[in-house]
């Protein structure tokens, strides 16, 4: 019996005639068959726009199209840009700071090209409309819009492209070093990599949040040609992983009970993705669904199902932060407000889904290419799982397409390693977007009760609060996140009577862990709303009550730490004062502080190795650049210290085999800790230059060929419970004031974001960080809510409530600096997390000012963004 040949479809791709045998996804044809890797796969659901290409002059999403419908079509991908277009996009996107993690950028470029081809002189509104189906989670869109407008002007001949000044010192507007590879799409994320002999792996996961795994039968799958292995819990030397607490099962074994609807029961490894899909369908797993707990209230209830045997009452973590006598202070307060506050699960929505490739390495070791926030953390988790010496495991980051805390835990890395060791070949494991949404930890939902008091002048007297977090099925970073929510709950104010109790509960929901802001977004929302209410009781403005209580240099924070000389919260308040009073009655204001570095007595270190090679200095630090631009910051620090052009400085990326451990990209720590380690190692290089008779510069560098240097930066801190009258919890704090203004329709028209993050190393980068954090926080306030139904994620990427280019208000990024600075890293304190904290309470305060309806839950109800929308005019 003959088999009919597949239909052949003829297309023109980037000016070349190509044939496609059979009807298939255009995205898969472009990536898998034509190897056009600039077309990114962000969701395969039509929700993100990373796969945008141009078909017959129109921007379209490749994942939503089949080749059968494209017979005779002309297609352009980023690889098909003309040389003139390439250079215009690279220049403009670099100058405007349009690029952070970069995963969305090739799709943005194609939407922009389609617009400019039709309209060479677009307006800002034209650009917003053209990219409205392209999601960016990093930049807040503003810098991308500015970049596209500049591209159009360059192509019209109105702007000339000028060479960049090679001496990019601290404070210079230096273009990111990875702009070209990200704009043009040739930079490699893990999913862009193919290796000889590479095979594919994927897990079969529980459809139930809590169920008994009664039987796993892989016999039919193992009989299929091209199926190499099916791994279960029996194949794992130590079947537990976890960033801090090892409570997360690699696979749920037969006879054990699942804890989330994303738990893996086994993993199939096969020659191709097609065979892999068929084999997964052939594996038979019998589940017995059990009663689950999906809320804090259910988890605390007497007789509730126990998610973990080691956690009676489903209590995962607890914290108690106390100073002074809050009870007495509140009893003696002139005014007291007390309210309950709720915040939801929210999704990081980084554009690049999790992906890893592991392969046998050296004689008996293993290496994994990954996309995460700490290669040494990943190495540690894998070593625990295998029972190996960590040095036998090499972890290397490729480009990281966003993280925001969601890539701190292992997801695909450890199972890729297991598979590679089993089949002794390179194995790629990548999540679908649905797997990613279900598996990786989210922002903790919070249920909290806050009571805050003040005197007749609005001076805060005390805070009593209880914070309850839902940490889902596994701990992830519940302890540290809960701790930060508690320690930062009083805000950046001058009072010391606090009683703060925090509890994190296991449920059968998806796990919760690190998310930009690290617990402070939740508690800050509650505290700032209470402060706005107190101002009303006192009869002063929301700006004034914050100004009267704002921390000053040399004064004592609620945790007892003395504010250092760089503290500039007052200056951030003054920066928005005029705008507040111009818009009083339709604006809200909030302040925040956020630690830089892990602190609280833990050994948090920055490390750097430097090698002079071929007339350049190579910087080795295992910091992960997840889009925030730390690699460019390190180059600027080196250029400043050594008086070198940037062409003489190479940042080698994050690789545990070559670079020393410089900690996780978390806690806004890399610019300060690793940046200071880079400065220290470069000072050693400068001293070596002088010892050879040269001042810092190119000649001195060339005289050190082959020499190697190492530096470690460590500044001790004190634990939360300390006998010291003024303990040092963190090495530095950043401060911010955000002001949100509503228009006549009740929409956010303007956000003024004033930040004290110390020395601004790169003005281009900090603006994009602020704008991106502001928009993320605006989504948290108004539209984002990860929908669950009894522990099961019901959202797709396109239904997460992410704000689009057409939703952005005017965002004015303001950065203030005091002349007095901290000593490390040229005075830089970090910006990544604090940008996302005070916008939500500022917006909530604006709605309260507008209609006097107190909203104590996020996302805010009855706004111009709600469904149905509330009308305000």
SSE arrangement:
Elements: E1 8-13, E2 16-21, H1 26-33, E3 52-55, E4 58-61, E5 74-76, H2 83-96, H3 105-118, H4 124-130, H5 142-155, H6 179-184, E6 199-205, E7 211-217, H7 219-222, E8 227-231, E9 240-241, E10 248-249, E11 264-270, H8 273-282, E12 284-289, H9 296-300, E13 315-323, H10 326-331, E14 335-343, E15 355-361, E16 365-370, H11 375-386, E17 393-397, H12 413-423, E18 427-430, H13 433-439, E19 446-454, E20 460-472, H14 478-487, E21 498-506, H15 520-538, H16 542-549, H17 569-582, E22 587-596, E23 605-613, E24 616-620, H18 630-642, E25 649-651, H19 670-691, H20 698-702, E26 708-714, E27 732-742, E28 748-756, H21 763-782, E29 788-789, E30 792-793, E31 810-815, H22 839-851
Parallel strand pairs: 1-5, 6-18, 16-17, 20-21, 24-25, 28-31
Antiparallel strand pairs: 1-2, 3-4, 3-5, 6-11, 7-12, 8-11, 9-10, 13-21, 14-19, 15-16, 15-18, 19-20, 22-27, 23-24, 23-26, 27-28, 29-30
